């Protein structure tokens, strides 16, 4: 490792140490985030569905536990582990979803949401403890930048080991795309089936939410190789932050709109539905086209679709795109993501704040993520990044931010 590499590693490690509120955040978030998941599920099925109801709708111990829940959760996890090891993992995953949709009583997932969320939370803690302990046997080059601070609370939260494996089984890559992400779609489908049981047919709002989010997950699975270049894989360690996000936060909070619609059905006119479909379509187009352009440029800068794009040279030997989608804003994929997030919330109407929790949370997440990426790129590319920022001044929203 050269002196410049060592300096960069030290700088990135120092910056990461102060992420997410440091030790205070690392201690509070493993408590606060699981309680938030349970709170949101309880509120979504309460008659008022109010985020400000006091006292909040607290579940009984019977509502938190069902012996079927751990069997389903661990069985689902094991099935995906088997599918992951098969050569046709994506095809097998789609086939599994079809089997579930055709034969399983998915409507019962509505009753099992809380017990399943409790199982996901418990497994997240146990899995994170295992990852933290095993990281002390990992070689130093396998540790994440900033995940080896010596502070056990922070290292447990952020993750010490970058990409832990059992043999050839990549634990982080598996959890990023398999059980939680596909589980989100299955939970949505369960909410749709529950609505059919209650009202005889699914509402237009429920169909839109299911369709939009199914498209998003299908896109992620179809382009799963692209996850290898994301911040989660390249930079962040695999600790509680990502484990909990993958196994608990994503499936049980991203499905919040569908869960809300079961108890709080919303009438949606065809005109409003068309406008929402158009919004989601625009968001998806921006999201997919910008990501595809970036991935193609990384794979082959001489490809005809990207060869004519203007770039800036950096001291690392890499080049930064300053035209095409990436000349519009620094993160056009985030812009598309946020337009889709808004389209997922709009079918739920404006009578309650709860179904709009996702767009508020996701906006905050992407702004924070963009700021992290900004610090890392400035440390990595130096003056070239400053030049890029002058050429592309807007971060996510053109002429706004």
From TrEMBL:
Q: InterPro entries recorded for this chain?
A: ERG24_DHCR-like, Sterol_reductase_CS
Matching entries from Pfam families are given as: ERG4_ERG24
Listed transmembrane segments: 20-43, 71-100, 112-133, 238-263, 270-287, 338-362
Coiled coil start-end: none
The question of whether Nuclease is a record keyword is answered with: no
Membrane topology is: Multi-pass membrane protein
The protein depicted here goes by the name Delta(14)-sterol reductase TM7SF2
Q: Which organism is it from?
A: Amphilophus citrinellus (Midas cichlid)
């Amino acid at each position: 490792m050269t002196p410049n590499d060592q300096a960069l590693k030290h700088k990135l490690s120092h910056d990461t140490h102060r992420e997410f509120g440091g030790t205070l955040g690392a201690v509070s978030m493993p408590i606060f985030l699981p309680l938030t998941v349970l709170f949101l599920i309880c509120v979504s099925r309460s008659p008022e569905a109010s985020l400000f109801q006091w006292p909040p709708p607290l579940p009984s111990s019977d509502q938190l536990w069902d012996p079927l829940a751990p069997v389903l959760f661990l069985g689902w996890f094991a099935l995906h582990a088997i599918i992951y090891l098969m050569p046709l993992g994506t095809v097998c995953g789609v086939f599994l979803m079809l089997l579930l949709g055709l034969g399983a009583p998915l409507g019962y997932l509505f009753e099992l949401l809380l017990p399943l969320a409790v199982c996901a939370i418990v497994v997240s803690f146990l899995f994170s403890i295992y990852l933290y302990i095993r990281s002390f046997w990992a070689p130093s080059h396998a540790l994440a930048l900033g995940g080896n601070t010596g502070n056990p609370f922070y290292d447990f939260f952020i993750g010490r080991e970058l990409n832990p494996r059992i043999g050839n089984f990549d634990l982080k890559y598996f959890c990023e795309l398999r059980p939680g992400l596909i589980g989100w779609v299955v939970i949505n489908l369960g909410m749709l089936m529950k609505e059919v049981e209650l009202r005889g047919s699914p509402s237009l709002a429920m169909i839109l939410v299911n369709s939009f989010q199914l498209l998003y997950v299908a896109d992620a699975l179809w382009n799963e190789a692209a996850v290898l270049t994301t911040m989660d894989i390249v930079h962040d360690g695999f600790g509680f932050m990502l484990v909990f996000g993958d196994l608990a936060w994503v499936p049980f909070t991203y499905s919040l709109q569908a869960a809300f619609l079961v108890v709080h059905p919303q009438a949606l006119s065809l005109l409003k539905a068309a406008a929402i479909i158009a919004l989601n379509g625009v968001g998806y187009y921006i999201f997919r086209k910008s990501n595809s352009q970036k991935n193609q440029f990384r794979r082959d800068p001489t490809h005809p679709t990207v060869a004519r794009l203007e770039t800036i040279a950096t001291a690392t030997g890499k080049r930064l795109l300053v035209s095409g989608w990436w000349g519009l804003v620094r993160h056009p994929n985030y812009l598309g993501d946020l337009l889709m997030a808004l389209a997922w919330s709009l079918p739920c109407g404006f009578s309650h704040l709860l179904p709009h929790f996702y767009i508020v949370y996701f906006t905050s997440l992407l702004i924070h993520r963009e700021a992290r990426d900004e610090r890392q790129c400035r440390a990595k590319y130096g003056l070239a990044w400053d030049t890029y920022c002058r050429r592309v001044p807007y971060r996510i929203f053109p002429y706004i931010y």
